Amino acid sequence: MNSNNKRTETPEAIVVTIPRRLDTEDAQLALERIQELLKKHEVVENLVRRQEEGDEQAPIIEGLLKRQHEVELEHLLNQMHPADIAFILESLPSEQRRLIWGLVNAKYDGDILLEVNDWVREDLISSMNREDLLAATEDLGADELADLAPDLPADIVAEVQKGLTNEERAQLLEAMGYPEGTVGAIMDFEMVRVREDVSLEVVLRYLRRLENLPDHTDQIFVVDRQDRFQGVLSISQLLVNDPETVVKDVMKTDYLSLKPNEDDAEAALAFERYDLVSAPVIDKQNRLIGRVTIAEVVDVIREDSQEQDLSRAGLHEEDIFAPAVKAIKNRAPWLLINLCTAATASVIASQFEGTVSHIVILAFLMSIVAGIGGNSGNQTMILVIRALAVGRITSKNFRSLLQRECIVTFLVGFLGSIVAAGFSWAFSGSLKIALVMAAAMVSNMLIGAVLGVLIPIVRDKFGKDPAVGSSVMLTFATDSLGFFIFLGLASIFLL
């Protein structure tokens, strides 16, 4: 099936059911089943290619077998939830991904494009024609269109806007006006709002006229006649109070609200701290312009976590099945930097060639000193990066944090150095070497702890991601200084 022509009628043999969510294990099994069918699909193609060119039956056989596999794939895919189909697409190479994409029921296209990672979305959109893209976006809300807009061709975005109401068009332009990483970029425009001067009975009648409530509606937002935000009315308060009660008398005025220009990570922390399901977004004039729900917050937390994990290794998000050239561009810079730092550490070690040549065992022991210092520093650095992410480090407690880490590291290092000294003594038979090993180990661990605190904090102070490349810089320092301290002490006390 051509992935550039998805607007085909669903075969009568296919029964499209309401998609169901799979748990993690079921999704893995579904992926394995799809990969098995794709393998059969590939085998059929290879077998037919080996047939003699004069065999007129070969194309017919190929078509029948391929269609059989496609029908089975369609049946399997169209029973799955869009989020699970997104997982399948992210787990396949580009060629197979596009084949599967062409078999997915077209009515799920928009939802799936919202679920997949950016690098998969770009690949899928590049395989779709204008008609497919317009059909995929026609039923999406303004906030969802804003999420897709950066990856869509400009003419498609312009065409989609023509089909929106004036209110929807204004919402789309507003959402697109906020930079990525802000509350405005993730806020939802679907919400229930009521005035403060109506009764709960009026509110209930209004809710009954709706086809359904927006997802994650745990509270109703209360506004005045000028749409200025006044408070929140929880669903529980609406249900348990007398219907004749006025909204103003039971609404909560002690609420948490968000500003559209706030960092979305700060909003995520607020949701975590106060166990929120939804929160209103208000502008400078105190007008209600949207809301943020737990669904968007979970996405923010997941994306930030993934970015931090990659950043610590100096990487950016990439398609694991992308061509090697793209992967090289992503991975090479920090690896080259790491190579330079390792070369510097080797140069420092080479300055003590005379010491090492006299006491050869030092060459085996110095790697332990460098490695322990790096590991100790990494432990501290991970704790600091996490504390920075949740806003727990300030100029007031920085000194206390540094002091605590030095004390903890010294005590751990002292205990570890006893073990290391005993190992060195048993291995070398020299008490002096054991003492030099212990002193160098404690010293390098303290250096690692100090740098583990300072590197991410300094980067954060200058507006840089504290996780990006921090481990590379820390390793450079602990390797270089570890070699210098250990071999320097050995030169002083052992020669």
From TrEMBL:
Query: Entry's SMART domains?
Result: CBS (SM00116), MgtE_N (SM00924)
Natural source organism: Advenella faeciporci
Give one Pfam family: CBS
**Signal sequence coordinates:** none
Q: Cite the GO molecular-function annotations of the record.
A: magnesium ion transmembrane transporter activity; metal ion binding
The subunit field of the Swiss-Prot or TrEMBL record says: Homodimer.
Which PANTHER family does the record match to this protein?
MAGNESIUM TRANSPORTER MGTE
| InterPro entries, A to Z | CBS_dom, CBS_dom_sf, Mg_transptr_MgtE_intracell_dom, MgtE_N_sf, MgtE_transporter, SLC41_membr_dom, SLC41_membr_dom_sf
Q: How does it sit in the membrane?
A: Multi-pass membrane protein
**Function text:** Acts as a magnesium transporter.
**Database matches in CDD domains:** CBS_pair_Mg_transporter
Residue ranges the record marks as coiled coil = none
Name of the protein this chain belongs to = Magnesium transporter MgtE
Q: Where in the cell is it found?
A: Cell membrane; Membrane
